[in-house]
Design brief:
2 copies of one chain form a homodimer. Chain A is α+β, with helices and mostly antiparallel strands and 236 residues long. The first copy, chain A, is built from 7 helices and 10 strands. In chain A, strand 5 and strand 6 form a beta hairpin. The two termini of chain A are 35 Å apart. At the A-B interface, strand 7, strand 8 and strand 10 of A face strand 7, strand 8 and strand 10 of B. The first copy, chain A, binds a DNA duplex (19 and 19 nucleotides) through helix 3.
DNA sequence: GAGTGGTCTAGACCACCCA
DNA sequence: GGGTGGTCTAGACCACTCA
């Protein structure tokens, strides 16, 4: 460790890098704090401090007596648990997703802006219907840079229970660090109303999300149309 | 320190209590870590750990070489900075609030449910208009248990720049730990449309927030009507 | 230069999980 | 019972702020 940045930051970033590169996979356990300290030539307290922030971010999960696991974020409940779709009556929805279309094309102006692309870059546009027990609740349009996600394959033949962020990470090595959502009302277009089985022109909520990578580059611009949702903010 | 909870939690809560009670005021500096450790009979490292969470929550601000200050959280930017109202064109709003009405009455069914009250408990209902440079952007209805907030006085004669959470804390010793928001669309009622200066029946967003205390008891049920908003989730 | 927080160490003991 | 993380200590040295 030659750098003059604090050791715990160097250690944190080293771990982060290994996770981002896939050397350490979600679901794996880290070496014990003792072993890490020995390997890195630093003290256990410094290792703890290095992992603390990753735990707070939900990337690692420390389990007393078992070890420290890289969180297998297999659904939006793990990484994006602050954000939920709910039924009009308040019940929480447990959604699966079904692929509708997938196209590679040039981005429109908003997509260029949101993803920091020029008009000649290509994007992959995916539309999905998300439902619970066969009842459609969310219509989704996902736009991602083609360059980063060339290798992405989305099976169309069966429902996806997994969050698409898992596919990004597994297939393309892209990890989502954070997301910003904007919420507006909208009137259901013909495709939205058809999938949600509501009348065209009905009022709906439109959530626009931009998800960014570990390096803070925009990875995804997603639009979700739905009827109600719930946020949990500021967990203890 | 007789309790068998971890010392750093006891120390954290002791600090929190003094802040909530007003013994320590926003803007004050804490005693130095050395002094705190000596006073509490614990080690400096444990004091650090006690303050770490409060720093992360934005309640304390550690300044290298100067000391640790209790954040003067004079606006929603400090505690609830994940949640923003935005203009339709994307600019971020900086809001002041103007009191419209204040009444003490019995809660309706939804208010009973949200605040865990029975129908004989009384609530204080406050309505406010929130605006930016005189342009009304949000209409708000705040419902709080009368018992907890007997001493709350809200000046009606001038704009409130301060977040109402500051008043809760200063005047009634009630601190908000977290909040859950639900978002729906609604059609503007006559009072909403009047204050937002839009046509009655226009579509608007309705944010329903329940804020809870340090002890996880519901403190406030708030409804905000607006045209657009933005969430930032999962800060780095 | 005195005092503050920021980093780091090398230990101790405890609580939990699991074979 | 062996290994893990959780708490806690008592120091060390550094970096920053302010008089």
């Amino acid at each position: 460790m030659l750098e003059n940045r604090p050791l715990y930051l160097q250690a944190r970033d080293a771990l982060m890098r290994q996770i981002a590169e896939g050397t350490l996979q979600p679901g794996d356990f880290l070496p014990s704090e003792q072993q890490l300290a020995a390997t890195l030539g630093i003290s256990v307290g410094t290792v703890r401090k290095a992992t603390e922030e990753l735990v707070a971010q939900g990337i690692l999960d420390r389990q007393h007596g078992r070890g420290t696991q890289i969180v297998p974020h297999t659904s939006d409940r793990s990484r994006f648990r602050f954000f939920r779709f709910i039924h009009p009556d308040g019940r929480q929805a447990r959604l699966t997703a079904r692929l509708l279309t997938r196209k590679t094309q040039n981005p429109n102006r908003e997509e260029q802006l949101r993803l920091s692309l020029s008009k000649n870059d290509q994007v992959i546009v995916i539309t999905r219907a998300r439902s619970e027990n066969g009842v459609p609740l969310v219509f989704e349009r996902i736009c991602i840079p083609a360059k980063r996600f060339e290798r992405l394959s989305v099976e169309s033949d069966r429902d996806m229970v997994e969050e698409i962020y898992v596919l990004y990470q597994k297939q393309c090595g892209e990890m989502v660090r954070s997301a910003t959502d904007e919420i507006e009302y909208d009137l259901a277009s013909s495709s939205v109303s058809k999938e949600l089985k509501i009348a065209a022109g009905s009022p709906v909520l439109l959530v626009k999300r931009v998800a960014v990578s570990l390096a803070n580059e925009p990875l995804e611009f997603r639009q979700s149309w739905t009827q109600a949702l719930r946020y949990r903010s500021h967990l203890e």
